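ok so dumb question maybe but i'm new to this and my supervisor (M.) told me to 'just get the structure for MFS transporter' and walked off. so i did the thing. is this what she meant?? sequence i used:
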Amino acid sequence: MENRPSSPLDTSKTVCVDNMTGYFDQVGTSMDRIQSIAQSKKEDANERDIELNPLESVDSNNTIGNNAENAKDNMFGEDADMYFPEGGLKAYSVVFGSFMGLISGFGLLNTTGVFETYISEHQLKDVENSTVAWIFSIFLFITFLTSIFSGTYFDRHGVRGPVIVGALMTFAGLFAMGNCTKVWHFILSFSILAGLGNGITTSPLIGVVAHYFNRKRGFMSSLASTGGSIGGIVFPIMNRKLFESVGYTWTMRIFSFIVLGCYIVSVSLVKERLPHKESPGKNMGQKFMSYLTAFDIKGLKSKDFFFVCLGTAFAESAVLIMATYQASFARAHGFSISTAYLLISISHVGGMIGRWITGYLSDRIGRFNIMYITLSMAAVVAFVTLVPFGGHLPALYVFTVGWGFFTGSVFSLLPVCCAQISKTEDFGRRYGTMYFITAFGVLVCIPISGAIIGEGSLTGYRNMVIHAGVTIFASGCFYFTARTMRVGLKFFTKF
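this is what came out, is it supposed to look like this??
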């Protein structure tokens, strides 16, 4: 196997959901390619299993390596004999096209807190927080779930079809959202229509980068997914200005056209290079059933993978709780709408920095080690800033930067940790299973937080922060448990 230099960028993954980035970053052109090649070259794959460091020994039933970088090398092993441009005008144009599309896709995910704050104070001001929360939990659930299947569709039919369809659905949903006045209006337009569109576009936009890069795949996918962070920084500030100047209806219309414009640029530049994967089965029923191979429910019998799934679901839920209610928390404490929206943008800046630094350190300290440490530190930041001092603006800024920084590991290391405890031929299905479980966790976590907030009292918001803090601390405990099952209570072992 070719030895590649270690790079912190190889472990990057963006999300708020930048959560699907890592999947295609590591899998290459998705789980179908991995599974089909792994079956045809099973003996060869076994011969290329990773050697284990004596200090990082694992159970004999799990013949895979502990080092995530080696896991990625093994993941890309089936592409070793294939030609990749690794650069050139066409390849870089595809990366830029993916970047532009993800400004809309991931940028929309990172802007949910803006919409929650505004409609809770205006159109739905007389509706309970727990009811309003369903709008955003359903949106995130549909986006997560759809993204799992859209990657397989991309493998079989290419990138432009799903991006065009998804872009039009997202545009229609956001445009219609400008005229919504009731909860069910928002669920139909934003949660379902925009959620489906967003989920359909994001995975193919990440997957197409892997058609042009192998050794540089981690770096280029990270570069493309940075578009989501740019959207998360710019959109909240932009929408605040538009709310004040042109009102809600025209803000949503303008926003929908900006999202569509980014997608148009993206569609004009992205194009797959590798041949399409043939769909298994001859009739529609067989083709539909083939998509169910994206899951590995039997893999949950492996205790370390089971705890990684729990850790992922709890980590994503905690991050999305704060992303949804952070602005409302600031408003409840009497701060201006400008300050509330600015906090969202600052959080994404901290997340970008944290994503790069934790990725860099994980190569030297260990992925699971970084995960449980940073997740625990995120909980500490919440408990020592917002819980006792949430009404003070300096504490809000400290929390925003600290929380964004420490949760950066959620965006960059979740898929790497999954790969580290998975065989090559199992990784695609395991990743799909992990986020299938996470989707259901996200579906219920935000309404629970809304119910905790209740009528919007300061006590309710403080309890919401405690809920998010406990949730992310539990995530760190789950990752620590999974680590312990592999290497025991050896705190200085790199894993």
